[in-house]
Design a protein that fits this description.
Layout lengths: L2 H6 L3 H14 L5 H11 L6 H13 L4 H25 L3 E2 L2 E2 L1 H4 L2 H20 L4 H25 L6 H10 L1 H15 L4 H25 L13 H4 L5 H10 L2 H11 L5 H13 L2 H23 L3 H16 L3
Antiparallel strand pairs: 1-2
Helix pairs in contact: 2-5, 4-5, 4-10, 4-17, 5-7, 5-8, 5-10, 8-9, 8-10, 9-10, 10-11, 11-16, 11-17, 13-15, 13-16, 14-15, 16-17
Length: about 325
């Protein structure tokens, strides 16, 4: 099934308008700044976050100019956070493309990230909605908080699923949650519907991140992210946490502590990856994703009454849980 065409079907015109606005927001005449922004624009992407804003907005009313500017602002905020994250993580790639810090340097990446963040604030101001401005400002704070929790957790030698989910809640889930919230609010939905949409977006974000984490246990040229990359950065994700906690394997737990201390070798990381797969870590993570998937489906059944939008949102969920990059 061609998920993306099904997902985009009810909002084709609005999505085309968004892409035009977004690409305009990332243009500048100055030499270096213009060059770096052009480099970032080339990433493209599937626009999953603005698509969610538009589908939720259309479900509860219409896609207004406020929703469009909010979508641009949120996508710019997300883009700025990725540029800064690559500096923090010392990442050389972002989805198969050289990261800004790798292609230029950390100083350029930080400054361009700041420029994009300021542009996000500008576009959000165009919504003339104090509520939407507050939502985006809170999202920025939450994303930063999530990064700090994740960094501090590297020093924590426990193998806590609770901390793992706290980080997701403050990062990926917060993004999707805010998308659904903004879409519902921009369309004038009821308080009950807005709260339900928030919850729906959060479930999508958790599924998205768990799927992303599973990628790290298998080699793939498509995603531009080598196997074990998270562990190389000191991060232990849901599959390995499950394997460590359920088997009680002392040798692997000591190896995991070396990962957290950033002292594990590539061979040791490979052993931990193999142990995780053989101990059912991937199967467990997939079961958790399915639980969130079923919860997200309940929103569509209760709050989405247009068959085309319901079909798109179901395809959206299916894509997030089944995607291979």
């Amino acid at each position: 099934m061609e998920y993306l065409s099904t997902i985009q079907q009810p909002i084709k015109a609005e999505l085309a308008h968004f892409i035009e606005l977004f690409e305009t927001s990332l243009q500048h005449g100055d030499g270096l700044l213009g060059e770096v922004l052009s480099h970032i624009r080339q990433r493209g992407g599937k626009r999953l976050r603005p698509i969610l804003i538009f589908l939720v907005a259309k479900n509860f009313g219409k896609i207004s100019e406020a929703a469009q500017h909010a979508a641009v602002g949120l996508e710019l905020l997300h883009t700025a956070s990725l540029v800064h994250d690559d500096v923090v993580d010392d990442s050389a790639q972002r989805r198969g493309q050289a990261s800004v810090n790798a292609n230029y340097n950390n100083k350029v990446a930080v400054l361009v990230g700041d420029y994009i963040l300021s542009t996000a604030l500008l576009y959000v101001s165009y919504t003339h909605s104090e509520a939407i401005v507050q939502h985006l400002a809170n999202l920025g704070r939450t994303l930063s908080e999530g990064e700090i929790i994740q960094l501090s957790n590297i020093q924590n030698l426990d193998f806590s699923e609770d901390v793992y989910f706290r980080v997701i809640e403050k990062k990926t889930a917060a993004l999707f949650k805010t998308c659904a919230l903004i879409g519902a609010e921009a369309a004038g939905a009821s308080k009950e519907a807005i709260a339900a949409a928030e919850n729906f977006g959060e479930k999508i974000g958790v599924i998205f991140q768990i799927r992303d984490d599973i990628f790290d246990y298998f080699p793939s040229k498509e995603i531009g992210k080598p196997t074990g990359n998270d562990m190389a950065e000191g991060k232990l994700t849901l599959p390995v946490l499950y394997a460590l906690n359920t088997t009680g394997n002392k040798e692997m737990q000591e190896l995991a502590k070396k990962v957290k201390k950033l002292s594990a070798t590539a061979d040791e990381i490979a052993r931990l990856v193999t142990f995780t797969i053989e101990s059912g870590g991937i199967s467990y993570a997939e079961r958790v994703m399915d639980e969130y998937y079923q919860q997200a489906l309940s929103f569509i059944r209760e709050f989405v009454h247009d068959s085309d939008i319901a079909k798109s949102l179901e395809a959206y969920l299916d894509y997030v849980i089944q995607r291979n990059l």
